[in-house]
Amino acid sequence: MAGMDGSLWSVKGGNKRVVEKLLEKSKAHLIPEYVVQIIRNNDSYTLLTNFKKKATYDYVVFAAPLAENQKVPITFSNMPLALNKVGKYHQTVSTLVIGDMKRTTFSTISDDLLPITIISNNENEFFNSISNVEGVNETGSLNVWKIFSQQPLSNNQIDYLFENVSDVKVVDWLAYPHYSVPTESQSFHIADRLYHINAIEWTASAMEMSCIGAKNVALLIKKHFNSKELNETTKWSHVEL
Q: For residue 241, what pLDDT is reported?
Protein backbone atom coordinates (compact mmCIF):
# COMPACT_ATOMS: atom_id res chain seq x y z
CA MET A 1 0.00 0.00 0.00
CA ALA A 2 1.44 3.34 -1.05
CA GLY A 3 2.70 5.47 1.78
CA MET A 4 2.89 2.64 4.30
CA ASP A 5 6.61 1.83 4.04
CA GLY A 6 8.50 3.53 6.85
CA SER A 7 11.62 3.84 4.70
CA LEU A 8 9.94 6.26 2.30
CA TRP A 9 11.25 9.81 2.21
CA SER A 10 9.32 12.58 3.95
CA VAL A 11 9.39 16.32 3.30
CA LYS A 12 9.56 18.61 6.29
CA GLY A 13 6.51 20.84 6.13
CA GLY A 14 4.64 18.45 3.84
CA ASN A 15 4.79 17.56 0.14
CA LYS A 16 3.34 20.97 -0.73
CA ARG A 17 6.83 22.34 -0.07
CA VAL A 18 8.07 20.52 -3.17
CA VAL A 19 5.59 22.39 -5.36
CA GLU A 20 6.27 25.69 -3.60
CA LYS A 21 10.01 25.37 -4.21
CA LEU A 22 9.50 24.35 -7.85
CA LEU A 23 7.35 27.44 -8.37
CA GLU A 24 9.97 29.60 -6.68
CA LYS A 25 12.81 28.19 -8.80
CA SER A 26 10.85 28.51 -12.05
CA LYS A 27 10.04 32.18 -11.37
CA ALA A 28 6.64 31.51 -12.92
CA HIS A 29 3.72 33.82 -12.16
CA LEU A 30 1.04 31.96 -10.21
CA ILE A 31 -2.54 33.17 -10.63
CA PRO A 32 -4.53 31.91 -7.60
CA GLU A 33 -7.71 31.15 -9.53
CA TYR A 34 -9.38 28.12 -11.08
CA VAL A 35 -9.53 27.69 -14.85
CA VAL A 36 -13.12 26.79 -15.71
CA GLN A 37 -13.03 27.03 -19.51
CA ILE A 38 -10.43 26.52 -22.24
CA ILE A 39 -11.39 28.04 -25.60
CA ARG A 40 -9.50 27.02 -28.72
CA ASN A 41 -8.65 29.78 -31.19
CA ASN A 42 -6.80 29.39 -34.49
CA ASP A 43 -3.26 29.28 -33.09
CA SER A 44 -3.84 29.93 -29.40
CA TYR A 45 -6.09 29.22 -26.43
CA THR A 46 -8.08 31.56 -24.22
CA LEU A 47 -8.50 30.59 -20.58
CA LEU A 48 -11.43 31.75 -18.48
CA THR A 49 -11.15 31.64 -14.68
CA ASN A 50 -13.72 31.37 -11.92
CA PHE A 51 -13.28 35.14 -11.41
CA LYS A 52 -14.31 35.75 -15.05
CA LYS A 53 -10.78 36.79 -16.03
CA LYS A 54 -9.42 35.92 -19.47
CA ALA A 55 -5.93 35.37 -20.84
CA THR A 56 -4.67 34.00 -24.16
CA TYR A 57 -1.66 31.70 -24.58
CA ASP A 58 0.21 30.07 -27.45
CA TYR A 59 0.46 26.76 -25.57
CA VAL A 60 -1.60 25.34 -22.71
CA VAL A 61 -0.46 22.55 -20.39
CA PHE A 62 -3.38 20.94 -18.59
CA ALA A 63 -2.02 19.63 -15.26
CA ALA A 64 -5.15 18.30 -13.60
CA PRO A 65 -7.29 15.16 -13.75
CA LEU A 66 -9.59 14.84 -16.73
CA ALA A 67 -12.04 12.46 -15.09
CA GLU A 68 -15.76 11.96 -14.62
CA ASN A 69 -15.64 13.00 -10.95
CA GLN A 70 -13.00 15.75 -11.01
CA LYS A 71 -13.67 18.38 -8.35
CA VAL A 72 -13.21 21.40 -10.62
CA PRO A 73 -14.92 20.67 -13.97
CA ILE A 74 -13.42 22.42 -17.00
CA THR A 75 -15.28 23.13 -20.23
CA PHE A 76 -13.39 22.79 -23.52
CA SER A 77 -14.80 24.92 -26.36
CA ASN A 78 -14.19 24.93 -30.13
CA MET A 79 -12.22 21.70 -29.94
CA PRO A 80 -11.76 19.68 -33.16
CA LEU A 81 -12.91 16.52 -31.36
CA ALA A 82 -15.03 15.92 -28.29
CA LEU A 83 -12.92 15.21 -25.21
CA ASN A 84 -14.04 12.09 -23.42
CA LYS A 85 -13.40 12.07 -19.70
CA VAL A 86 -11.66 8.84 -18.79
CA GLY A 87 -12.96 6.91 -15.79
CA LYS A 88 -13.09 8.13 -12.21
CA TYR A 89 -10.56 8.95 -9.53
CA HIS A 90 -10.42 6.89 -6.35
CA GLN A 91 -11.56 8.58 -3.15
CA THR A 92 -9.12 8.30 -0.26
CA VAL A 93 -9.67 9.79 3.19
CA SER A 94 -6.71 10.45 5.46
CA THR A 95 -7.57 11.05 9.11
CA LEU A 96 -4.90 12.21 11.56
CA VAL A 97 -5.67 11.54 15.21
CA ILE A 98 -3.78 12.59 18.33
CA GLY A 99 -4.68 10.05 20.97
CA ASP A 100 -4.03 6.59 22.33
CA MET A 101 -4.85 3.31 20.63
CA LYS A 102 -7.84 1.80 22.40
CA ARG A 103 -6.72 -1.30 24.28
CA THR A 104 -10.18 -2.85 24.36
CA THR A 105 -10.22 -2.78 20.55
CA PHE A 106 -6.59 -3.79 20.01
CA SER A 107 -6.09 -6.05 23.00
CA THR A 108 -3.45 -8.20 21.27
CA ILE A 109 -1.11 -5.27 20.64
CA SER A 110 1.40 -4.57 23.40
CA ASP A 111 3.61 -1.53 23.92
CA ASP A 112 6.56 -3.61 22.74
CA LEU A 113 5.06 -3.69 19.24
CA LEU A 114 4.84 0.10 18.91
CA PRO A 115 5.33 1.88 16.55
CA ILE A 116 3.06 -0.25 14.44
CA THR A 117 1.21 -0.38 11.15
CA ILE A 118 -2.11 -2.20 10.86
CA ILE A 119 -3.37 -3.10 7.39
CA SER A 120 -6.87 -4.47 6.82
CA ASN A 121 -7.72 -6.68 3.85
CA ASN A 122 -11.32 -7.03 4.99
CA GLU A 123 -13.60 -5.22 2.55
CA ASN A 124 -16.22 -4.84 5.28
CA GLU A 125 -13.82 -3.02 7.61
CA PHE A 126 -14.25 0.76 7.75
CA PHE A 127 -10.51 1.48 7.57
CA ASN A 128 -7.73 0.37 5.23
CA SER A 129 -4.75 1.03 7.46
CA ILE A 130 -3.62 2.60 10.73
CA SER A 131 -0.05 3.70 11.37
CA ASN A 132 2.04 5.84 13.68
CA VAL A 133 3.17 9.19 12.32
CA GLU A 134 6.30 11.10 13.26
CA GLY A 135 7.48 14.44 11.99
CA VAL A 136 10.69 14.74 10.00
CA ASN A 137 13.69 14.55 12.38
CA GLU A 138 11.32 13.99 15.29
CA THR A 139 11.21 10.98 17.59
CA GLY A 140 9.59 9.95 20.82
CA SER A 141 5.88 10.62 20.37
CA LEU A 142 3.76 7.64 19.36
CA ASN A 143 0.30 9.10 19.88
CA VAL A 144 -0.16 10.60 16.40
CA TRP A 145 -1.95 8.22 14.05
CA LYS A 146 -2.87 8.25 10.37
CA ILE A 147 -5.90 6.27 9.24
CA PHE A 148 -6.63 5.62 5.57
CA SER A 149 -10.25 4.85 4.72
CA GLN A 150 -12.65 4.88 1.78
CA GLN A 151 -15.11 7.20 3.52
CA PRO A 152 -14.82 9.86 6.24
CA LEU A 153 -14.79 8.29 9.71
CA SER A 154 -17.64 8.99 12.09
CA ASN A 155 -17.04 10.06 15.68
CA ASN A 156 -18.17 6.61 16.83
CA GLN A 157 -15.63 4.93 14.55
CA ILE A 158 -12.82 7.14 15.86
CA ASP A 159 -13.91 6.40 19.44
CA TYR A 160 -13.85 2.69 18.61
CA LEU A 161 -10.19 2.93 17.58
CA PHE A 162 -8.79 5.52 19.98
CA GLU A 163 -9.16 7.05 23.42
CA ASN A 164 -7.90 10.26 25.01
CA VAL A 165 -8.33 11.96 21.63
CA SER A 166 -7.20 15.60 21.67
CA ASP A 167 -7.30 16.51 17.96
CA VAL A 168 -8.56 15.16 14.62
CA LYS A 169 -7.71 16.37 11.11
CA VAL A 170 -9.35 14.99 7.95
CA VAL A 171 -8.16 15.23 4.34
CA ASP A 172 -10.62 13.84 1.79
CA TRP A 173 -9.30 13.79 -1.76
CA LEU A 174 -9.40 11.99 -5.09
CA ALA A 175 -5.99 10.41 -4.82
CA TYR A 176 -5.44 8.41 -8.01
CA PRO A 177 -7.35 6.85 -10.93
CA HIS A 178 -9.62 3.90 -10.33
CA TYR A 179 -7.70 1.33 -12.36
CA SER A 180 -9.25 -1.49 -14.34
CA VAL A 181 -7.89 -4.26 -16.54
CA PRO A 182 -7.08 -3.90 -19.35
CA THR A 183 -5.80 -0.35 -18.89
CA GLU A 184 -5.94 1.97 -21.88
CA SER A 185 -3.01 4.39 -22.08
CA GLN A 186 -3.79 8.06 -22.55
CA SER A 187 -2.09 10.63 -24.75
CA PHE A 188 -0.15 13.66 -23.51
CA HIS A 189 -1.34 15.47 -26.64
CA ILE A 190 -5.00 16.54 -26.41
CA ALA A 191 -5.02 18.85 -29.43
CA ASP A 192 -2.66 21.16 -31.29
CA ARG A 193 -0.79 23.23 -28.65
CA LEU A 194 -2.81 21.64 -25.82
CA TYR A 195 -1.16 19.02 -23.60
CA HIS A 196 -2.16 16.91 -20.60
CA ILE A 197 0.44 15.99 -17.96
CA ASN A 198 -1.92 13.80 -15.91
CA ALA A 199 -2.39 11.36 -18.76
CA ILE A 200 0.50 9.42 -17.23
CA GLU A 201 -1.54 8.77 -14.07
CA TRP A 202 -3.54 6.12 -15.91
CA THR A 203 -0.32 4.11 -16.02
CA ALA A 204 0.84 4.87 -12.47
CA SER A 205 0.11 7.71 -10.07
CA ALA A 206 2.77 9.39 -7.92
CA MET A 207 4.62 12.70 -7.63
CA GLU A 208 7.53 11.12 -9.47
CA MET A 209 5.26 10.04 -12.32
CA SER A 210 3.92 13.58 -12.61
CA CYS A 211 7.51 14.79 -13.02
CA ILE A 212 7.99 12.31 -15.86
CA GLY A 213 4.74 13.45 -17.45
CA ALA A 214 5.79 17.10 -17.15
CA LYS A 215 9.14 16.41 -18.81
CA ASN A 216 7.46 14.55 -21.66
CA VAL A 217 5.09 17.47 -22.25
CA ALA A 218 7.95 19.99 -22.13
CA LEU A 219 9.84 17.97 -24.76
CA LEU A 220 6.72 17.75 -26.95
CA ILE A 221 6.23 21.52 -26.79
CA LYS A 222 9.91 22.11 -27.58
CA LYS A 223 9.68 19.77 -30.56
CA HIS A 224 6.54 21.49 -31.84
CA PHE A 225 7.99 24.98 -31.33
CA ASN A 226 11.28 24.13 -33.06
CA SER A 227 9.40 22.52 -35.93
CA LYS A 228 7.24 25.65 -36.29
CA GLU A 229 10.32 27.88 -36.32
CA LEU A 230 11.97 25.65 -38.91
CA ASN A 231 8.89 25.81 -41.12
CA GLU A 232 8.80 29.61 -40.82
CA THR A 233 12.49 29.87 -41.72
CA THR A 234 12.03 27.57 -44.71
CA LYS A 235 8.99 29.53 -45.87
CA TRP A 236 10.80 32.89 -45.79
CA SER A 237 13.89 31.46 -47.47
CA HIS A 238 11.68 30.30 -50.33
CA VAL A 239 10.15 33.78 -50.56
CA GLU A 240 13.60 35.35 -50.81
CA LEU A 241 14.57 32.98 -53.59
A: 40
Q: What percent of the chain has pLDDT over 70?
A: 85
Q: What is the mean pLDDT of the chain?
A: 85
d(CA 144, CA 234): 65
pLDDT digits (tens, 9 = 90+) for 168-211: 999 998 988 988 877 777 889 999 999 999 999 988 888 889 99
Q: Note whether 145 and 96 are within 8 A (CB).
A: yes
Domains of the chain, residue spans: 32-88+178-232, 89-177
Q: Is the peptide bond before 73 cis (omega within 30 degrees of 0)?
A: no
What is the model's pTM?
Answer: 0.78
